[in-house]
Amino acid sequence: MTSLATLLSRLPLSSIRSRILVIALLPALLAEFGLVAYFTTQAFASAENALHGRAANAARHLAEALQYSLVSGDTAQVNALLETERVNSQLAMARVTDARGQALASVGNPLPSDTDPYRQSAVIHLPAAALPADISFPAIQPASDVLGRVEVAVALDQISAFQRSALFHAALLMLAALAITGVLAWRLSDRLAGQLHHIGRVVHRLTGADLSVRTELPPQGEVGALAAGINDMAEALQTHRGELEKRIREATADLAAKKNMAERANQAKSRFFAAASHDLRQPLHALSLFVAALKARNQQPETQNLIDNIEASTAAMELLFNALLDISRLDAGTIETRPVHFPLQKMLRDLDQQFGALAEEKSLRLRFRPCNVTLYSDPLLIERILANLIANAIRYTDDGGVLVACRRRGRMVRLSVIDTGRGIPPDQQENVFHEFVQLHNPARDRSKGLGLGLAIVSRLGRLLGHRIDLHSRPDHGSEFSIDVPCGDAGLIQPPASVGTPGQIPGDALVLLVDDESAILRGMAELFDNWNIDLVTAHSADEAVQWLDSIGRAPDVIVSDYRLPDDSDGIEVVIRLRQKYGLDIPAILVTGDTAPDTILRITQAGFPLLHKPLRPAKLRALLTHLIQQTRAPAMG
Q1: Are residues 563 and 591 in the same domain?
Q2: CATH of the domain at 81
Q3: DSSP sequence for 258-305
Q4: Selected residue with higher pLDDT from 549 and 447
Q5: Does 174 fall in a domain?
Q6: CA 562 to the chain's CA centroid
Q7: CB–CB of 255/274 below 8 Å?
């Protein structure tokens, strides 16, 4: 019993087999134990009753058999009768006493009355029939018809042996019944567990998207019904998956068609903006050239103010176009980061000088908290981010001020631009980083920009891998922050010495190729003021003709990127280099801001200037390229 209970306790009741064994064996164990206990108890009672009956029968038999022996006083016969009855009835003891209680005869071992519960006695009476004449009472003189008493006892070891034998056979019977029950339950559980394992494997394959698998069990019984239900479910899932795959293919095709339409529309939009930008930049470029030439030739003070206003308006238009150009360059991925270790405080002083006057014009207080920390990033791009944030804060703050601060956060430094402006509603805080979004400029006031400053900040942050956060409350101001890694002050490189710009040699020759006559005239005026020889041409063929006519190669080629007949400036430079067998320096100028155009020019390795270009920047680049080319010859 104990070993069986231990075995059942060790079985994992989470399995079907163990549960079936427990369900089968526990009731069988309880039923068999109850039956064995009942029948064993009955057997014990029957054995006790039999012992009592045997002792009572022996006492009655002796009481009848001893009548004549006692009357005759034959003690030997009395002992013989007692011994015979003791042996036949398996008595432990038998004895006879007279009417006065005096022992007359005894056989066996007398047992104490407190240890022998199986004791019987009977009274010996005178015989009912008349005594023979020759029998007298020499030994017994009865006062009445009672001759004496006979007492018998049964030994306890007999009933104990019977109990042991009965318990042993009952245990054997229980074990046999449990073994038969266990074998039957094991066979049943093994069959059921095998069926369930088969169903489990099928369900596992179904969950693995193998909807073609089916159970192979007959549909009889509960397990068969379960298997049939799983097959029906798998069939329905397979059918549904087929329909779903069909819908997905149709939806994918529809999405692909819509995506292609959107891409074509986006490409058309990009081409439109690129063409529009190019077409708008062309006259603006020519205008800036004419303004620069006019400013250089003007000798009348009364017209100088007018020229300055025209130049300011041209510069404002140039700033707006350059903002669009920055977006295009960032989208094209042509801006490379150059991280270095640099001090932040110097950058803040430069920004203070740059924006201090602008803040004073609006009666705002612009403050820079001292930040004596070293950063590791691209200082030019970090300065551009802070400049855009400060300009944006000043633009949308009517009273109060703007604070630029920093604080260390572990290995990072958080740079924050905090204003007391109008604030940004929570539902618009993500949109302000998109292009052309201006919350407080419904009239599209040009002085408030195009809504590209924060879009550029967002793109520069992603390019640098720096996190940019915004916290703002309407009517309480905004806080824009950027997290920049800390740098090492010992690794700060000293600024490179800036040499005095050299002069362009008087015999230098520049070739200008552009299909716009106005631009050619404006550049000719500008170069004439610079005293630089210039050859202008509308195409590569015209440029070759002019150069052949003067019989020399140019020192620098300045070419527009877009040219007639599907040619471009890259092809012009390559053609002229091949003609003269020289690696002639070249500058490409374009009004096209399309990302693929910028990327192609950058990959070609040519310096790129965007229209409208600043004359001073063009002259500085020309000087650098000519001096770089002639330096080996001079050496």
Answers
A1: yes
A2: 3.30.450
A3: HHHHHHHHHHHHHHHHHHHHHHHHHHHHHHHHHHHHHHHH---HHHHH
A4: 549
A5: no
A6: 50
A7: no
